[in-house]
Amino acid sequence: MGIKSGADMNDYGRQIELLLVKRNISKAAFADKIGITVQQLHAILRGKSMSTVTTLETMAEILKVPTDVLLQDIDKRFLLYAIDDYLNLIDRSRAQKSLEYFLSILEEEKKDE
């Protein structure tokens, strides 16, 4: 399981758009805050262009979410590692058990494909 192909990159844009609505941030204001043009933002949201890591981190910071939340629809592992990070802050042994469990589920899915 790797990063999905271009059609699914729109999920990344939809995730960002959903968070913009929830945070009541306009696309123009968001583009300005992250230092890109509105046209560049639209290209990112439509899956026509990829953001840089720096832009991704800035977007996540402005939207007040971990970068994994923005990437979760591209590859399931992003969300798993985000969960692991959160659990690690609470209880390391629980985090390790949960991560191993989730990874075993992904391996089972991989075998079924």
UniProtKB/TrEMBL annotation:
Pfam families: HTH_3 (PF01381). Gene3D superfamilies: lambda repressor-like DNA-binding domains. Residues 16-70 form the HTH cro/C1-type domain. It comes from the Bacteria. GO terms for molecular function: DNA binding. InterPro entries: Cro/C1-type_HTH, Lambda_DNA-bd_dom_sf. SUPFAM superfamilies: lambda repressor-like DNA-binding domains. Transmembrane segments: none annotated. This is HTH cro/C1-type domain-containing protein.
